[in-house]
Amino acid sequence: MNRLPNPAVAFAVFIGSIIGAMLLVVAYLSFYEGLPGIPGGFLTTAHYVELVKDRLVIRVTSNTLIYTVTAVFFSLLFGVLIAWLVERTEIRGRNLIYTGMTVGLLIPTFFPAMGWLFLLHPRIGFLNIWLKRWLSESLALNIATPVGMGWVEGITLAPVVFIMVAANLRMADTTLEEAAKVSGASAWQLFNSVILPLSTPATLAAAFYVATIAVASFDVPAIIGLSNRVYTLGTFIYEDLVPHQGFPQYGRPAAVSTILVTLGGLLSIWYLREIARANRYRLVTGKDYRPLRYPLGPWILSAAIFVLFYFLVAIAIPLGLLVWVAFQPYVQPPSVEALSQMSLSNFTNAPWDLFGRALRNSLTLTVAVPTLSILVCFIYSWVVLRSKTRLKYFLDALVFLPHAVPSIVFGVAGLLLSLFFLRQIIPLYGTLALLMMVHIIQRLSFGTRVANSAIIAVSEELEEAAEVCGARRRDVVARILLPLISPTLINAFFWIALLTLRELTLATILFSPSNITLSVVVWSLWSSGQHGPSAAMSLIMIALMLPVMLLYWHVGNRVGDALTGTRG
Amino acid sequence: MTLIVSLVAALSLSLLGSLLNDAAAAVKANEKLAALIKAAQTEGMLNLVWGENTFRGLHGVRELVSGMNKEFGTSIIANWTPGPSQPQMAAKIAQEFAAGVPSTSDVYIGGSETYIATLATPLMVLDQFDWAATFPQIDPAAVSLKGAALEISGRFPGIVYNTKLISQNDVPKSLKDLLNPRLKGKVSTQPYISYFDILSGPKLWGPERTVDYVQKLSAQVAGLMRCGEYERVVSGEFPIHALACGEGGVLPFMEKGAPLRYVIPSDAAMVTHRYCAVPKNGRAKNAAKLFCAFLMTKSGQEFQWNVDRQDSEKFPGTRYNRILKELNAAGVKPLDVSVDYVMSFPVLKYAKELENIIKIVGN
User: Fold this and answer.
1) Predicted local distance difference test score (pLDDT) of residue A234
2) Can you say whether residue A470 is alpha, beta or left, with left for phi > 0 and alpha for psi between -120 and 50 degrees?
3) Same topology for domains B24-154+273-321 and B158-268+341-360, yes or no?
4) Helix-strand-coil percent breakdown of chain A, rounded to 5?
5) What pLDDT band is residue B77 in, cutting at 50, 70 and 90?
6) Sequential DSSP letters for A501-562
7) Residues near A403 by Cβ (< 8 Å), separated by ≥ 6?
8) Cβ–Cβ gap A242/B230 under 8 Å
9) CATH of B158-268+341-360, one of 3.20.20.70, 3.30.70.270, 3.40.190.10, 3.40.30.10
10) Which of A237, A244, A424 to mutate to test the interface with B (most CBs of B within 10 A)?
11) Residue A453 phi/psi, 5° resolution?
12) Three-class SS string for A150-161?
C-alpha cells in the first residue's frame, strides 16, 4: 500500500528530474571540446584519455586520497566528540560552544589556510623557526603536505560534522544506554556498543558529506599546496577553469566530475543498503523518549581542554589572523614594526555601496534557500523512507549525486541550462532566482541526508498508532513527525543558511550585477590582492551575523528542548 | 624666380589642402563624436563588470566615469559590479552573445591578448569601430582587429624580488640569472607559467629554447604563486617571483615600504597589453565607446597610472612611454605583443606544454 499522497511522489520525481538534467549537462560537457554555444566545438572522449595519460594523475589521486581521509578523520574527531560533549554530557557553556562552532563557518577558508602557512611553512613558519632555533632542525613540521592540508581542511569542516551529528544525538532515546548501564557495561562498552552504533547514520552522512567537500576543495590546496607544487584534485583542474590563456576548458573538470558522480552513485548504493536496514538505527520510538546527559566527573578538565584546543586551532588562529590583516596595510608577520603600521584604512576605504547591495542579496538567499531546501528535503526524504514507490531508491541515489560534482561545474551546468534551454520558457538567466534554484539543488544532498537520518530515527509505530486512532496523514506529519525531527531540521536550516551565506563558486559563475553576494565581494577583494579590505569585509560580515547566531542558538535551543523535553 | 614662386605656391596650396583636409576630418570627427555623445547620453547608464584589481574597483570606476562625463559633457551613470576572472568573463560574454542575451557588462576589459583573440574567433563578439575617425588622439597602432579592441595600457612582465633576502650580487637582471645555483629554492613562478608561452613565439625565443629554459627553471623553483600575491614575496615565502604580471601590482607594496624591487629581464623584454572592448550585445554600446576612448585621453592615462600603476607605452609622456625609451636607449627592444601576434602561432598549445613541465618536475 502506498501510504503517501501521489503529489508528494510527483514532486520528488520533478525535483529528481531537475537534478538528472543538470547531471546530464555535466556528462555532456565531459565529452565536449570547446565552449558550449560557441561554434567549433565537437564531441570527443579526449578528456578521459587525457586523464589516463597524464603523468600527474596518479600523484594527484594519491595526494587527494590522503588529503581527504585526513580531513574526514579530523573533522569527525572534533565534530563528533564536541557534539557528544555538548548534547550528551553536562559540560558547561553549551550555547557558547555552539556559537563558537558556527563562528568558524563564517571565516572564509583562505584565512585559516594562510594562518597555518604562517605557522608551519617549511621555511617561514613562525613555529618552525622557533622549533629550529630552540630545539632541533629535524623537528620542523611541514604544513605543505597532503596530511598537513588535510588537517587544515578537517578542522574547518568539523563544524559541519558537529551540526549534522548534534541534533541526532539530542534526539537519542536512552533506553538502550540505561539497559547497558544496568547490565554493568563499562563506559567504553557503552560508547562502543550502544552510542556509536546508534549515531552511525548521522556520522556516516556527515563523513560522506565532508569527504565530498574535501575531494574537490580548492582554497586550502591552492594557498598551501599549489605554492609548494603539491597538487590535489581542486588545484589540478584549476588551470582549466581559470586559464591564463583562452576560454575556460570545462571538459576535463567535467570528466573528473562524471567519474566522481559514478563513485558517488556506488557509495549511494552502499548507503541505501544501510538505510534499508533502518530499523537498527531508530532512536525515537513510541516506548520512551528521554535523552540523558552524563556527568563528566574527573574528565571535565580533559573535555574542556579538548574543546579549548579545537577553538584555539580552528577559531582563534584564523580569527586572529583575520583581525591582524584587517588592520594592516598588507599581509605581514607580526612584529613591532608591523604593530606601528596598524590603521582603520581598510574599513574606511571599504566599498560600502557595493557591500549594501550584496548584503541585500545575501540575506534574501540566506533566508529563502534554507527555507525552501528544508521543505523540499523533508518531502523528498519522506517519499524515500515512507513511501512504497519503486522509484524511491533511485530518487535517493540521484539526490546524493550533485554533491559529487564540484560547484564550479555544477554552476556551469546551471548557467548553460538557463541560457540555452530554459530561456524561452522561464527567463531565469542572471537572476537571483536562478542562483537560489541551483543553491537548493546543490543543498539537497546534504538536506536529505540530514532529513533521512532524522526520519529513520523516528519509529513508524508512532505514526501508525496515530493513524489507528483516526488521525489524518497530514495531522500525523504535522503533529508527530515534524515536531520530533524539528531540532534536526532547525539545525539543517541553520547550516544551509551559513553555507549559502559563505558560498562563493556558484555565486561567481551565475553572477550578474543584480544578484551579487557578499562572498563574491570578499573573494573579489582577496583575489585581487586586497587582503586587508577583504579581511575587513569578512570581519564586518561576522559582526553582522554574530547577533543572529546568538539569537538563533538561544531560540533554537529553547524550541528544540521544549519539543524534545530535554530542558534540564 | 618664377620656378621658386611656383614651388612656394604649390607648397602653400598643398599645405592649405592638407590643413583643409585635417580641418574637414576634424569637423567630421567632431560630428561623429557629437552623434556618439548624443546616443550615449540617451543610453544613460553603463553596466560594468570586472575584477577589483582593475581600476581599483568601485572607487576607481566612480572617478573614471566622472572624468568621462567631464571630458565629453555627458551625465552617464555607472553601475559597477565585481565579476569573475577575465577568461570566465570572456566566456560569459561570448556565450551570452551566442544565446542572443544582452552582455552582462557593456565593456570588456581584458588583460591578455588571448582573451581578446577568443572573443574575435570563431565568433566576432566585439563591436568593430573606427576609433581614429572619431577620436583623433587615439594612435592607430593601439587599435587591434579592425577596431574590435583598444590597447589602453601596457605592462612589462618582469622579476620581483625581496631586497632583504636577495644579496646585491645575486640580484637577477635577466631570466638567465634565475638559473644561478645560489637562487635554487628561492624562486617562484606562476602555476600557468605566464608569459613564457609568449616567449615561445616566433619573434622571441621559439618553442625549443623556451621548453629547455622552463625545464631548468623548474628545478630552481621552490613553489608556485599567482599574480597579485606579492605579499608572499614580502613575507619571504618566495624571495623571487618571475615572471610577474607587470610592475603595476608591485609598486603599491613598494610605496607602502615593502622591501621589493622590480626588474625587466634584458633577455625577455616584452610589452603586453590591457584592452578595452565593446561587446556587440551590450545594452549601452555608445556609452561604452566613450568609456574606452576616455581611457586613451591624457586624463584617462593619468587615471590609470594613479589607480593601477600602469599606462600606455604608446601614449606620449606616460611613465611606460619613458620606460620604453629608457630600454631602447639601453639597447633593449621589448617585443610589442599584439593580438595578431598571439594568433600567429599555437600559443594555447605551448602554454599547456609549459604548464605540464612546471607541474611535473618536482612531483
Assistant:
1) 80
2) left
3) yes
4) 75, 0, 25
5) very high
6) HH--HHHHHT--TTS--HHHHHHHHHHTT-HHHHHHHHHHHHHHHHHHHHHHHHHHHHHHHH
7) A208, A209, A212, A264, A442, A445, A446
8) no
9) 3.40.190.10
10) A244
11) -65, -35
12) HHHHHHHHHHHH
Instruction: For residue range A449-470, list pLDDT tens digits in order.
Output: 788 878 887 777 777 787 788 7
What pTM was computed for the model? 0.77
Q: Which of the 8 DSSP states describes residue A330?
A: S
- Site from B45, B52, B116 to mutate, A interface, most A CB atoms within 10 angstroms: B52
**Residue B19 CA from chain centroid, whole number:** 34
Q: Residue A78: what pLDDT?
A: 95
CA–CA separation, A185 vs A177, rounded Å? 9
Chain B segment 262-281 residues within 8 A of A by beta carbon are: none
ipTM: 0.71
* Chain B CB contacts of A62 below 8 Å: none
The bridge status of strand B270-277 relative to strand B335-336 is parallel
Q: Which residues of B touch A529 (CB under 8 A)?
A: 53, 228-231, 249
| Per-residue pLDDT reduced to its tens digit, A149-162 | 999 999 999 988 88
Asked whether B77 and B71 are in contact (CB, 8 A), the reply is: no
Q: Over 70: is that where the pLDDT of B1 sits?
A: no
Residue whose C-alpha is closest to residue B135's, from B359, B324, B295: B295
Tell me the three cell numbers of residue A224. 598551501
Q: What is the pLDDT of residue B51?
A: 82
Nearest residue of B to residue A505, measured between CA atoms: B84
What is the CATH class of B24-154+273-321?
alpha beta
Q: Got the DSSP string for A71-125?
A: HHHHHHHHHHHHHHHHHHB--S-HHHHHHHHHHHHHS-THHHHHHHHHHH-TTT-
Cα–Cα nearest to B149, from B19, B352, B265, B289: B289
- Within an 8 Å CB–CB cutoff, is residue B347 touching chain A? yes
A66 to A11, A198, A232, A233: CA distances (angstroms) = 40, 28, 10, 12
For residue B48, give the chain A residue with the closest CA: A513
Question: Which positions in chain B touch A530 (Cβ < 8 Å)?
Answer: 52-53
Which sequence spans correspond to the domains of chain A? Answer: 6-564
CATH of domain A6-564: 1.10.3720.10
Question: Would you kindly state where each structural domain of chain B is located, as residue ranges?
Answer: 24-154+273-321, 158-268+341-360
pLDDT band of B231, cuts 50, 70, 90? confident
Residue type, B281: N
Instruction: Give the pLDDT of residue B292.
Output: 97
Most B CBs within 10 A among A241, A245, A509, A512, hence the mutation to make, goes to A245
Per CB-CB distance under 8 Å, the chain A contacts of B362 are: 229
| Phi, psi angles (nearest 5°) of residue B158 | -155, -165
Average pLDDT over residues B105-130: 92
Assess contact for B84 and B53: CB atoms under 8 A: no
Give chain B positions within 8 Å (CB) of A124: 235-237
Interface test with A, best of B81, B104, B234 (most A CBs within 10 A): B81
Pick from B83, B114, B190: which is nearest to A511 by CB?
B83
- Binary contact (B82, A354; C-beta < 8 A): yes
Write out the three cell numbers for B87: 577568461
**Which segments within B6-156 are labelled E, that is strand?**
45-50, 77-82, 108-110, 143-144, 149-155
Instruction: Find, in chain A, the residue whose alpha carbon is nearest to that of B253.
Output: A330
B343: closest chain A residue by CA:
A246
More confident residue, A54 or A45: A45
Average predicted confidence (pLDDT) for chain A:
81
What's the pLDDT tens digit per position in A355-383?
888 999 999 999 999 999 999 999 998 88
